[in-house]
User: What shape does this take?
Amino acid sequence: MTAVLPRRNRAPLSGAFRVARALVDPAVFDFWSAKVNPLWTWERPMARLKARRQASSDAVTLVLQTNRHFAGLRPGQHVNLGVEVEGARLSRSYSPSAVAGDQIEITVREVDGGRVSRHLCRDARVGEVFDLGTAFGGMTLPAAVQGAWLFLAAGSGITPLMAMLRQLDAAGMPVQLDLVYWARTRAELCFADELQALAAKHACFKLHVALTREDDGRGTFATRIGETDLAALVAQLDQRQVFACGPHGFVHSARGLLEGRVQRFDAEAFTPPQALPGEAGTVEVLLSRSGRTLTVPRDRSLLQALEEQGVRPASGCRMGLCNTCACTRSTGITRDTQTNARSAEPDATVRICISAAATDLTLDL
Assistant: This one.
């Protein structure tokens, strides 16, 4: 059982179209066709904002209609969304909370200082058009779902799990599933009414809400995941297949608590881990395409260091998942900010969102 946003069927290319394809500049075609319908592009995957609704006190759900060039995704995967904010084209990664036909839904919580999330939550209006990237991510349900499952969500980590929960609902909830969902207050819960309705609809689906800053009516507050006795909360914990999603600290605690104690453990964090300390000082980075040489600190990621000097490389998830920021390092040594491992292989591909400069570098940017 796999719910996938289907690839549109395309008729074989005619001889005339093959000739046209060799002659047409896609950018010119897109410019003029957008005046009729912004989703009519030569080959670019695009989506138009069709509707928006409040998902919680601090999050909104955006319903996007995709064009025929979007190849589709599986519930649980991520996609990069290209957004124009104050004249700049920015890209951020989101995991849709619903997948159906030519529509996807993304649920966005505004992040402090987040230009894209602020725009999507406050300013984006019905009709606005976004670029779409290729779907990525491996935390998806298998084609044949069997056994007992446990979903663990914190904050915005509910979104990929909600997409998979809806997938299981459409299939009649064929497995035992428990969802433990942490939030600070009830008002910050996304999909609260739908989750309650699903729990009432399916006897094999159990919902556990854990509020850390709002009491349960008896003057008690939920503990964080590292302090929660999941074995007392969830039956047959050792038989569960677990998906966990939330901030990095949440995922790290869940992994330490459950890995080796359950049948399967997969997790994704929607915030990057705190970078390990690097060396002090600065190095020079040559951007071979532009010919610029920049002096950058060695204690932060290359993406952050370049952005601080006005360079805007392509980026997406900013967590080392989507490879949007990957480029070739021709010379020099980089440091993985998550593990502190060094890499000196010439002409290697590096993800600059999780790589720092350890020595002078040459990057294909």
Summary: The first strand starts at residue 46 and ends at 56. The radius of gyration is 22 Å. Confidence is low (pLDDT under 50) at residues 1-13. The CA atoms of residues 20 and 245 lie 46 Å apart.
